[in-house]
Every structure is written in structure tokens, then in C-alpha cells.
């Protein structure tokens, strides 16, 4: 036998197979969901003596909210962004021109701690800082924007990676649609998640992330003296007032001082509608069992209808407001059920997929992704 008869065939380069497996679909979408949640959430500072597990479970709760109801999560950054802009205008009126939107976000996240004699230190939000400055109780904070960003542990590489991976998911869906290839419900779920996540990232762009140590403001007056100087204000409930800081050890993540106006409500409503519409694009998807197809379609209709109802603002008459609130309360219970059904159906769909689900779109491979 000659050497040529058993020599292996040598190949210099070979293209990848024109297909994808179930694991590929799951991995790409789970990765996009994970990195988006990891980078989009900007938690407020934890309390000084707060334990690891308390912080861990709070972050888990917010992560679950981000995945299951991302359009609801968008409300908080929008309102906090508005609060930060209001704070800047109010500080400018006081002559504090070095106060920026970053400072306001930092304050409303618990970045400034007030240390008084004989009293544990506690956070003061932007409204409280303005109140104390206006009464000459403290001097304007001198911390610079650069110092605040130094305290922030924002991962720019992770955010870039999240953007690239999200772009890959969106472009892949567009490519598959143009080539008439079936798109999985999981891919639509991920795409629908990306839209409010990008909105959240935009409005929280000036909010420091994962700050470990706050800025401590030392004063020589006591809380008792502050309450006396506050007069009648000290006898009223402190919630959402300049005296709000007196009763807490940390500022919660969902803290947003001003009530939503029509502008913020419209932004959240539009994002919610887009989120629901993306899910509805999978209307023609057929599941292995007919009842699952019905559940999928009904759930998507409910999602879209609830988001549409949520954008209606009736006239401020008692009867209409009472009726509207009743409808909204019922609608959101139905919304939760529909949301759960959608999340279940997203995975049940893998029991039986159209064959072309596993055919890869051609040109999309040139987009960088993992």
C-alpha cells in the first residue's frame, strides 16, 4: 500500500454549516438578556450596615422585574431623569452653578450622607440638599463630576458588549424576516426586552452605577435644631418633602420625587406599546398544540390592550377617575397572567419548531457577536 492511499485529506479553510441549533438560539438570547440586565440596572447605594444577602436579594428582585416587565421598569429612570433636571434648575436659581444632572442623580441615589452630632449618618436627596443650602445649613457640595464618575463602577466594556449583542439579535430578526425565515418567540421576547432596556439606559446614562462609598457631609448642628428651625414643616409627614431624609437609612431604587407628568407618561406609554407590538409580530407562529397557539395570541392581545388602556387619561371627575382606576386594576391583574403565559409559551415553542427556524440568515454572520 502506498503512502498516498492512507494519507488524510488536508483542508485549509472551511465555512461553518448553514444552520443553527436549539442551544445556539437559547445561548444567544439568554446572553443578550443577561448582559442587558447586568448593565442597565443602576442601583442606589446600599445602607451602611446592610448585609450581603439583603443586597443580593434586592438586586435579584430588580433583575426579575427588568426581565418580566421591562416596560414598567422604564418608568423609574424617566421620572428620576426629570427629577434630576428639576434639581439642576432649582440649584441654578440658588446660584449653585457647579451642580449638574450627575450631581442630582448621585444625590437621589444616596450619594450624599449627612453626619450630625450624636446621630447616625443618613442619606439626603437632591431636594434635601437644596433645602439645607437655601437655609445656609450646609455649603454646596464641592465634589466634581470627575470624582463622582471615579466612584462609579460602571462597566463600559460590558455596556459595549450588551449593545453589540443586542444589535446582533435585532439585525438577525430583520434578516430572517426579509428572507422569510421563521423567527422564534424567544427572539421576539428578547427584541421586545431590548427596546425598553435601551430607553432605560438612555435616561440613566448620567446616573452613577455601583457606587460603594458615599460623600459624607459633616455638620455641627443637631437633628433637634434642624427640626426646630423647620417650624411647621417638621410636624407634617416627611415623605416626598425636603425633610424626607429624616426617616430612612437608604434611598430606595424606585425613589422618584416628582409625580409623572404627561410627557414622562407618554414616553413610558410609547415604549410599552412598542414592546407589546413586537410580541404581537409573532401572531402567525403555530405551536405544536392548537391551544398553545390560542394562548399565545390571546396573551399578546391582552398585553397590547392593557398597554393601550394604560395610556388613556380621563377627565378629572370623580366618577370617571374611579371607573378608570377600577378598569386599570383589573387590567393589570390580567396583564400579569398574560405576561406569565407569554414567558411559558416562549419555551414551550421549542417542543416543535418549523424546520426553517434552524436555517441561518446568510449575511448576518458578518455582525460581531458571541
TrEMBL record:
Superkingdom, taxonomy of origin: Eukaryota
Source organism per entry reads Podospora australis
UniProt KW Transmembrane helix keyword: yes
Name the record gives this protein:
Uncharacterized protein
Q: Which UniProt keywords apply?
A: Membrane, Transmembrane, Transmembrane helix
Q: Where are the transmembrane segments?
A: 23-41, 62-83, 267-287, 294-314, 326-350
PANTHER family xrefs: DUF4220 DOMAIN-CONTAINING PROTEIN, TRANSCRIPTION FACTOR DOMAIN-CONTAINING PROTEIN
Amino acid at each position: 500500500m502506498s503512502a498516498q492511499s492512507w494519507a488524510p485529506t488536508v483542508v485549509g479553510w472551511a465555512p461553518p454549516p448553514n444552520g443553527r441549533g436549539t442551544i445556539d438560539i437559547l445561548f444567544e438570547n439568554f446572553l443578550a438578556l443577561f448582559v442587558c440586565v447586568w448593565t442597565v440596572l443602576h442601583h442606589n447605594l446600599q445602607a451602611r450596615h446592610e448585609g450581603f444577602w439583603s443586597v443580593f436579594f434586592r438586586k435579584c428582585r430588580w433583575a426579575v422585574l427588568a426581565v418580566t416587565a421591562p416596560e414598567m421598569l422604564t418608568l423609574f429612570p424617566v421620572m428620576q431623569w426629570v427629577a434630576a433636571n428639576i434639581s439642576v434648575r432649582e440649584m441654578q436659581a440658588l446660584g449653585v452653578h457647579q451642580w449638574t444632572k450627575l450631581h442630582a442623580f448621585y444625590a437621589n441615589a444616596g450619594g450624599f450622607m449627612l453626619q450630625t452630632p450624636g446621630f447616625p449618618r443618613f442619606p439626603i436627596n437632591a431636594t434635601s440638599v437644596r433645602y439645607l443650602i437655601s437655609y445656609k445649613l450646609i455649603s454646596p457640595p464641592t465634589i466634581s463630576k470627575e470624582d463622582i464618575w471615579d466612584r462609579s463602577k460602571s462597566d463600559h466594556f460590558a455596556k459595549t458588549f450588551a449593545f453589540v449583542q443586542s444589535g446582533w439579535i435585532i439585525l438577525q430578526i430583520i434578516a430572517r424576516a426579509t428572507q422569510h425565515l421563521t423567527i422564534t418567540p424567544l427572539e421576539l421576547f428578547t427584541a421586545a426586552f431590548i427596546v425598553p432596556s435601551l430607553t432605560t439606559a438612555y435616561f440613566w446614562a448620567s446616573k452613577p452605577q455601583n457606587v460603594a462609598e458615599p460623600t459624607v457631609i459633616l455638620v455641627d448642628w443637631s437633628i433637634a435644631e434642624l427640626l426646630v428651625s423647620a417650624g411647621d414643616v417638621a410636624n407634617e409627614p416627611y415623605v416626598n418633602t425636603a425633610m424626607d431624609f429624616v426617616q430612612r437609612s437608604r434611598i430606595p431604587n424606585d425613589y422618584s420625587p416628582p409625580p409623572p407628568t404627561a410627557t414622562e407618561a407618554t414616553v413610558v406609554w410609547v415604549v410599552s406599546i412598542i414592546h407589546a407590538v413586537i410580541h404581537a409580530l409573532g401572531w402567525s407562529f403555530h405551536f405544536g398544540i392548537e391551544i398553545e397557539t390560542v394562548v399565545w395570541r390571546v396573551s399578546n392581545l391582552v398585553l397590547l390592550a392593557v398597554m393601550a388602556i394604560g395610556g388613556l387619561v380621563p377627565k378629572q371627575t370623580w366618577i370617571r377617575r374611579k371607573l378608570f382606576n377600577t378598569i386599570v386594576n383589573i387590567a393589570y391583574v390580567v396583564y400579569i397572567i398574560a405576561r406569565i403565559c407569554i414567558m411559558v409559551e416562549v419555551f414551550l415553542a421549542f417542543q416543535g419548531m418549523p424546520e426553517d427556524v434552524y436555517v441561518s440568515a446568510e449575511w448576518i454572520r458578518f455582525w460581531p457577536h458571541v
